Amino acid sequence: MTAGKGDELVPHPVKDQLPGVDYCVNSNPSWAEAVILGFQHYLVMLGTSVIIPTIIVPQMGGGNVEKAQVIQTLLFVAGLNTLLQSWFGTRLPVVIGGSFRFIIPAVFIALSNRYNTYLDPRERFKQSMRGMQGALMIASVLPILAGFFGVWRIVTRFLCPLSMAPLVLLLGIGLYQQGFPLLAECVEIGLPELILLILLSQFIPHMWKLKQPLFERFAVLLSVGIMWAFAAVLTVAGAYKNRPLQTQFSCRVDRSGLVSGASWIRFPYPWQWGTPNVDAGEVFLMLAAAFVSLVESTGGFIAAARYGSATYCPASVLSRGAGWLGLGMLLNGLWGTGSGATVSVENVGLLALTRVGSRRVIQISAAFMLFFSVLGKFGAILASIPLPIIGALYCVLFALMSAAGFDLLQFCNLNSYRTKFLLGFSIYMGLSVPQYFNGYVITTGRGPVQSGSAAVI
């Protein structure tokens, strides 16, 4: 609201398209600027592409070589999926990358008793990856059918700003565990990165006026470069020489094992781990993760349309995007990435930070994904950025994703008690229900529902 001293408060006018965007979906910056912005999007999505294999590959019996190969594969398929979504799907500026929602099913499969008979770690890794592939390929049928057969179009037709606001809001807030907790694993690197990113993007542009928006547009690239160099200096100086192993892994720039494990040139290909196999129980877990990914990707499409200064996405576009998202999950299963596909939340937040919603920039970032996934050593160098730096980026980018949910409230009647109830109840339950399941698993070691089924296909 705006008001002078003693004046009556006046609400800001409603804007169907977000103002202040420098480049919308169909407008493009210069090629040089677009390439730098595309590389920045690639740098942002690297965090998730490294975190997911770092969690699941050791559970599967794999080492640094297998982890580097899975990261390369995940990047390669993410590049393909991003191009397909921007060409044939919603055609919005969204990056389609790995999803945290598939970590629990992947770990469940990796720790399954049927893989304990394999004593060779490499063979156990391959067998568990084949199980993930089979389950994910079948689970991908859900978003494919929902999208291309119009089911999701019927569902999303009932979405209104009041129902979209909590969906988009919780999409960013729901990833709070990947923000400051990841930053705090090496606070002397993560916290300065967060402060520097905020200074470069929010304060310096207002204090130092330039003809070109250099700092706010490239704040991520500048801050990461500075803090990565700082972390390298601390590593070379021996600051972490006698620290615990976990601290060294989080803070040092030479402890990821990716550079030594990656190949110079490697082309990921379908069924590279062998013929997939299917377990019925594992399929149901992957189906649940695929449905969650479908819902959160819908929220990501809505937020990306807003930050790209596009009009509201019609149900037909959201349904088409869901279908191509399902095809993306199928590609994840064919190649064996250990994770399904979803809209990259952090890259949607980067659209808001840079105020550039150009589709071309996202397509260039997909080209970087394909390039660095094939040239493994070069990609591994970038992927070895300490994860606390990535956690600092998440603190800002996930927050901007959540802000898109608040943005939609301008179309709602907040003076209505029914609106207040629906908004408050949906947000509260969206945070409270997952906490119940998390607490149940922590205290009992299992989920609240046990089917007891061991059927194998």
Structure, described:
- It is a single chain.
- 65% of the residues lie in helices and 1% in strands.
- It is an all-alpha fold and 457 residues long.
Q: What's the helix count?
A: 20
Structural class: mainly alpha
Instruction: Summarize the amount of helix as a percent range.
Output: 55-70%
Biggest beta-sheet profile: 2 strands, antiparallel
CA gyration radius, whole angstroms: 22 Å
Q: For the record, give the distance between the C-alpha atoms at the N and C termini, rounded to a whole number.
A: 60 Å
Strand numbers in spatial order across the main sheet: 1-2
What's the quaternary structure here? Answer: single chain
Question: How is the topology of this model organized?
Answer:
Layout: H1 31-60, H2 64-87, E1 96-98, H3 103-110, H4 121-139, H5 141-148, H6 151-156, H7 161-173, H8 180-183, H9 187-207, H10 214-217, H11 219-236, H12 245-251, H13 258-261, H14 280-307, H15 315-335, E2 341-343, H16 345-354, H17 359-374, H18 376-383, H19 387-407, H20 417-444
Antiparallel strand pairs: 1-2
